[in-house]
Amino acid sequence: MMKFVRILLMMLHRSVLLGLTIFCGMLVFQKVESMRIKDALHFCWSTITTIGYGAITPKTHLGKVLTMLYSIIGIPLFILCLSSYGMLINHCTVKVVTSFDQCCSGRKKVSYLHAKTGFVLFWVLIGEIIAGTFILNVLTDWSMLDSAYTWVITLTTIGFGDYIPDYPPDSRYIKTAIILVSELTTWATIASFVQSVRSAISEINNERRGFIAKLFCCYGDKRDEELYFLTHDLDNDI
């Protein structure tokens, strides 16, 4: 319970900082670049998330300088927020998987806990991608294929710019909120899934030594890693 509270407080703290960063950036770029509030919000969001659609770009010299500084500050903060969101989702999913496994098997210790957690989060992520596709399909006039394509390109932060959610700027604010919340939720699940996969690799490696260690270059603990470098001639490995 204490771990959950610590993660929650950390998440709230980082979220407040991220919110203030977006809000201040929105006000600054609205003034410097003579943007509408909604355009400034879209610009700040696409900058700190590294999507960079290219629909809105700084035109003034001051705006370009501020964009560079804003990205240096905003991008790491956004990554920290995603990390805390992922930790919270991962923690809750582990608790659910543990309770379900103990209830079904009757054993106190859950085998391959992180692998099972990753499996659950994978299907949650697939569900969120499908839900995001339907959201874009409803809020826009795009086909299901174009909606799925745009959603995946957005979530992977590739951001080609051929299809842009919630742009041009005449769309309603409620549409903006729905899309931003959907993106943030899915990114948090992706962060949690990656964390589970990393833990699962170490977990499986502790049970099945050899192949997985060589494939992913990971070891059961620090002593195993130190032993590897002490017992192998690195010059011969190159």
TrEMBL record:
- Top-level taxon of origin: Eukaryota
What organism is the protein native to?
Hydra vulgaris
Q: Which gene encodes it?
A: LOC100212397
User: Lipid metabolism: present as a keyword of the record?
Assistant: no
Please list every transmembrane segment annotated in the UniProt record, as residue ranges. 68-88, 117-136
Q: Where in the cell is it found?
A: Membrane
Q: Which GO terms describe its biological process?
A: monoatomic ion transmembrane transport
Iron is among the record's keywords: no
Please give one Pfam family short name: Ion_trans_2
- Domain Potassium channel: where? 22-88, 124-196
Family, per the entry? Answer: Belongs to the two pore domain potassium channel (TC 1.A.1.8) family.
The record's keywords, sorted A to Z, are: Ion channel, Ion transport, Membrane, Transmembrane, Transmembrane helix, Transport
What is the name attached to this protein's record? Two pore potassium channel protein sup-9
Q: How does it sit in the membrane?
A: Multi-pass membrane protein
The record, for InterPro entries, names:
2pore_dom_K_chnl, K_chnl_dom
